[in-house]
User: Which sequence fits this backbone?
């Protein structure tokens, strides 16, 4: 706030008021502090209230300096849980003391200065409350937007450091539960023996003071300040509330990560079981059927003319069963990835699609740099397989595009068609064994994303993106 709220005439009258007060400053200050002590204000509250009186204004050279001092101490009073109404009462008490000293002189100037002071205090009070509200909103959005526990902790630290106007901050998850000495809120000055409790050695000893606050049995929040800055009552309450929010968020994220780990293990076990069943079908049933077809072919050559046709039909039926069995084995586990690699496997998948569907298909497939992890290759293959099957069954498309490109540290699969399209929210709600929900889960387990863009009559586009690391 500036002194622009005062007219030139008001500034002259305020300057005269300050000059008139100066001879009685010491006496006014002692009497005012005595009144505040009677009202059970503590030393910090008394200092802040004494810094926003007309007596404090008389000690400063300009009204601008005074109003800046009022805003600063107004924020401190808000953090010490002194509401504006109580500040107003205290200023009225000081005004009564000034009235006695000046015998009613300079009343308009005193009234204008008090109104400006109260306006600055109200503004500072609501700044503090708005900052608190924004901090909680920030924590909520940080939890929602973070893509990992580490990312969330970094966002939390940035918000907490900014909210408490700290110079640096850390929110650290420890391997062991906190020691008893760290299991309670601590204010630590540089040089204090407790400085060894600052968990980050890079932060230890560099700053004038620290706050250490336990967040959970094995996590601690520590903030560093350039000056000696013990927390104020409101800040301690806010710190507890925000630590509680962080504690709950950490637990939720850990539960989600644990669930993802279990899901990943279940998916891996499922893939291994599918591959095992596929191998057994291929090695046992497949070989037996091939032998049966060979024997039928030999019987057909030596059989009487009356049986030849029936044996031929039986042999062809056995051949169709072999082809269907091969399709089932391929669907159970893409062993083709091991034999041919991802690029050739996708081209084979596209070739099968062209045989099944009349749509014109374009493929652009780049080899990923280095060795692509087996699980990532499986997800890419499965998503491509699911998309092409859905297009063949439902889309009535005339053009299909399949693109696989690697860039920077990610690999991206994009499949689009110009078919009938669908409502994504309705489609995802339908139960399906390897549907869109399953594809999205597979991508998420590898730290990737899967986006589906479609609407009725406008085709569909599926984009899978996975990290290469």
Assistant:
């Amino acid at each position: 706030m500036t002194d622009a709220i005062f007219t030139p005439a008001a500034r002259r009258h305020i300057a005269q008021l300050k000059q008139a007060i100066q001879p009685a400053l010491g006496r006014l200050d002692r009497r005012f502090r005595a009144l505040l002590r009677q009202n059970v204000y503590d030393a910090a509250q008394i200092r802040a209230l004494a810094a926003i009186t007309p007596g404090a204004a008389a000690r400063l050279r300009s009204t601008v300096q005074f109003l800046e001092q009022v805003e600063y101490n107004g924020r401190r009073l808000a953090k010490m849980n002194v509401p504006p109404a109580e500040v107003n009462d205290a200023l009225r008490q000081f005004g009564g003391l000034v009235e006695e000293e000046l015998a009613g002189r300079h009343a308009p100037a005193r009234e204008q200065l008090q109104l400006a002071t109260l306006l600055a205090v109200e503004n500072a009070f609501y700044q503090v409350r708005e900052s608190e509200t924004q901090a909680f909103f920030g924590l909520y959005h940080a939890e929602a937007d973070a893509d990992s526990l580490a990312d969330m902790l970094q966002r939390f630290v940035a918000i907490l450091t900014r909210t408490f106007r700290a110079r640096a901050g850390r929110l650290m998850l420890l391997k062991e539960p906190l020691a008893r000495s760290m299991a309670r809120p601590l204010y630590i000055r540089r040089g204090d023996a407790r400085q060894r409790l600052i968990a980050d050695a890079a932060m230890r000893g560099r700053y004038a003071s620290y706050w250490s606050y336990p967040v959970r049995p094995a996590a601690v929040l520590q903030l560093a300040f350039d000056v000696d800055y013990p927390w104020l009552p409101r800040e301690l309450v806010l710190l507890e509330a925000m630590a509680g929010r962080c504690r709950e968020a950490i637990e939720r994220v850990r539960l989600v990560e644990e669930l993802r780990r279990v899901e990943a293990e279940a998916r891996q076990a499922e893939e291994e079981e599918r591959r095992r069943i596929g191998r057994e079908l291929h090695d046992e049933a497949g070989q037996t059927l091939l032998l049966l077809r060979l024997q039928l072919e030999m019987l057909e050559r030596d059989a009487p003319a009356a049986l030849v046709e029936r044996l031929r039909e039986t042999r062809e039926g056995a051949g169709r069963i072999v082809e269907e069995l091969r399709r089932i084995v391929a669907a159970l586990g893409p062993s083709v990835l091991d034999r041919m690699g991802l690029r050739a496997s996708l081209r084979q998948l596209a070739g099968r699609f062209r045989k099944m569907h009349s749509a014109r298909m374009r493929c652009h497939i780049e080899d990923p740099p280095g060795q692509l992890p087996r699980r990532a290759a499986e997800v890419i293959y499965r998503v491509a397989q699911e998309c092409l099957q859905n297009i063949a069954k439902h889309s009535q498309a005339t053009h299909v595009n399949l693109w696989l490109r690697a860039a920077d540290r990610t690999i991206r699969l994009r499949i689009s068609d110009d078919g009938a399209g669908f409502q994504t929210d309705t489609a995802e709600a339908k139960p399906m064994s390897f549907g869109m929900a399953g594809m999205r889960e597979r991508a998420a387990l590898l730290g990737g994303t899967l986006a589906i863009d479609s609407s009725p009559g406008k085709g569909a586009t599926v984009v899978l993106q996975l990290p290469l690391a």
Observations:
- The longest strand covers residues 399-407.
- The two ends are 53 Å apart (CA to CA).
- The chain has a mean pLDDT of 86.
